[in-house]
Design goal:
The protein is an alpha+beta fold and 87 residues long. The protein is 38% helix and 18% strand. The protein has one domain. Helix 1 (3-12) crosses helix 2 (23-32).
């Protein structure tokens, strides 16, 4: 995991929830953590990690991820047993 990937979990778990995370960084973190990421219809992606599954919508037209989606990714990571101090 490169240095940038190591900072992303801390940002995802930060309070207040950041609104300037780029989705490509979050998706790269998920892949690096071992998640299976597959394309769904439209902007949807399916993610499976440690037996936990979720469907997310890639943000568009801009690259920034909204706070609600960051919180959903945070909940997914917690359910999969990923915490920032473990990364």
């Amino acid at each position: 995991m490169n240095r940038r990937h190591r900072r992303i979990p801390g940002r995802i778990f930060a309070e207040p929830t950041p609104a300037d995370l780029r989705w490509r960084d979050i998706e790269a973190l998920l892949r690096t953590a071992g998640a299976e990421v597959s394309e769904g219809a439209g902007s949807r992606i399916r993610v499976a990690l440690a037996g936990v599954r979720a469907v997310f919508h890639r943000p568009h037209p801009g690259p920034e991820t909204r706070r609600g989606l960051v919180r959903a990714v945070r909940d997914f990571l917690i359910a999969a047993g990923i915490r920032p101090d473990e990364e």
